[in-house]
Amino acid sequence: MAISRELIYLDYHSTTPVDTRVANAVFQAMITTFGNASSVEHEAGDCAESAVKQSAYYVSELIQAAPREVTFTSGTTESINIAIQGTVKHAQKSGVTPHIAISVIEHKAVLDTCYALKSQGQIKLTVLPVDNQAHVDLLELEQVCASGIHLLCVMAANNEVGTIYPIEKISAIAQNHNVPFLCDATQAVGKIPIRFRAWGITMLALSAHKFYGPKGIGALVVRKGYQLAPILYGGGQQKALRPGTLNVPGIVGLGEACRLRQIEMVEDERAIAAKRDRLQSKLLANIPGLIINGDTQNRLAGNLHISAPDIPNSAIIARVRHYLAISTGSACSSGVETPSHVLTAMRLKEEVIEGALRIGLGKFTTDEEIEAAAQILIAETRAIRKLLE
Ligand code: PLP
Predict the structure, then answer these.
(1) Helix, strand or coil for residue 71?
(2) By Cβ atoms counted within 10 A, which residue in 233, 270, 333, 348 is the most buried?
(3) DSSP line for 18-67
(4) Ligand 1 pocket by Cβ (under 6 Å)
(5) Cα–Cα distance measured from residue 103 to residue 240, given in angstroms and rounded to the nearest whole number
(6) Rg (CA), the chain
(7) How many helices (H) and strands (E) in the chain?
(8) Catalytic residue among 114, 145, 183, 332
């Protein structure tokens, strides 16, 4: 089944359409660079290996790391598991039960990994709260780092309300206390500048499908010298940290997506923010009582998180789902009847949480789509309010 032509896609936090230039690079890699990147005995292997090296270079350029610090994975969920479980396994070799601190608004990939390790008695866990704009208190974060933890995990930008975190400052605090710092930069890479080396980040996770690349490919970037125990065993590829035959077409797609972001990010994000602001103004002017959630001064350009507190979000979704793709929360949790852990942690009122809608714009969003989406949301809100009268 293909997506209908009429569907306005505004769910870019969940995933992005693949850029045609990236799709072409993947296709070319599939048919011309089909060798196994570890087959060093012939030219087919050499070609695949050099394509992988080229992609590692593009990834490292975008986030200002070194190519040898890039390990390719199937995406952020795997990267995070390698980073957290690998840190824990390494610490356990010296008989230590590691203490990990995370923010409460991390993605489930971080939360559930840590909750599982905690319930198995493998780690001590501290969960940092947030304020009503999803900000972490840096003084509290510093105190936790000073208490002598083994790993700090804070995301670069939130996947629901789009709040951007001061990663440079957080990384400096972690460094001052010799705490390794894992940054889930899934929503930030290719949208805002990231300086892995200069900011002193220890590990960084990213997924290509959040910035116009293919799904199922990503990377864990690990600062040279940081020790991780592997959680998978196999053919020893990628310094045995992530063994398994390399997904060369996916890696080429990730590299091409990074190369394009490097060139086009600043201009694209400026245009996306202008469209988001236009949509926001139209909705605020025409939907009485509408609330914008999160930090409107410091959020991702493509993020618009709204609540009409008297209208359950499920009512809007049910009416628009065939022609407007928006969501009630993170992709992994949508469809699940539990309220968003991010909005709950922000202590928003119950009716604000129940009315919450996440709108995500991206580089392919057009002015016409913004206009049409505004009209749909305004009309449907009015219609539901009439029914509820
Ligand atoms: N972290 C954040 C902030 C995300 O937005 C996502 C995807 O929604 C993930 C982690 C998981 O990424 P993936 O599903 O590509 O492993």
Answers:
(1) strand
(2) 348
(3) PPHHHHHHHHHHHHH--S-TT-TTSHHHHHHHHHHHHHHHHHHHHHT--G
(4) 75-77, 107, 109, 155, 159, 184, 186-187, 207, 218, 330-331
(5) 30
(6) 21
(7) 12, 12
(8) 332
pLDDT at 5 over 60: yes
How many Cα atoms sit within 13 Å of 241 on the Cβ side?
27
What is the CATH number that goes with domain 20-260?
Answer: 3.40.640.10
Give residue 389's pLDDT.
85
The pair phi, psi for residue 290, each rounded to 5°, is -65, 140
Whether residue 141 is predicted with pLDDT greater than 80 in this model: the reply is: yes
166 or 330: which leads in pLDDT: 166
In the reported structure, the alpha carbon of residue 361 is separated from the centroid of ligand 1 by a whole-number distance in angstroms of: 17
* Rounded mean pLDDT, 147-166: 98
Q: Write down the pLDDT at residue 337.
A: 65
Q: For the domain 8-17+265-388, what is the CATH code?
A: 3.90.1150.10
DSSP state of 327: B
Check if the beta carbon of residue 37 is closer than 8 Å to that of residue 48: yes
CB contact at 8 A, 355 and 264: no
Both tokens of residue 306?
Answer: 């709204």
Choose one of 155, 159, 164 to mutate for the ligand 1 pocket test, by most ligand atoms within 8 angstroms of C-beta.
159
In this prediction, residue 302 carries a pLDDT of 98
Query: Using the 8-state DSSP alphabet, how is residue 299 labeled?
Result: B
Q: Where are the domains of the chain?
A: 8-17+265-388, 20-260
Averaged pLDDT for residues 198-217: 98
Mean of the per-residue pLDDT values of the chain: 96
Q: Determine how β-strand 151-153 pairs with β-strand 124-128.
A: unpaired
pLDDT value for 4: 76
* 238 in Cβ contact with 68 (< 8 Å): no
Helix (H) or strand (E) holding 153: strand 151-153
Look up 332 and say whether it is catalytic: yes
- Closest approach atom of ligand 1 to CA 159: 5
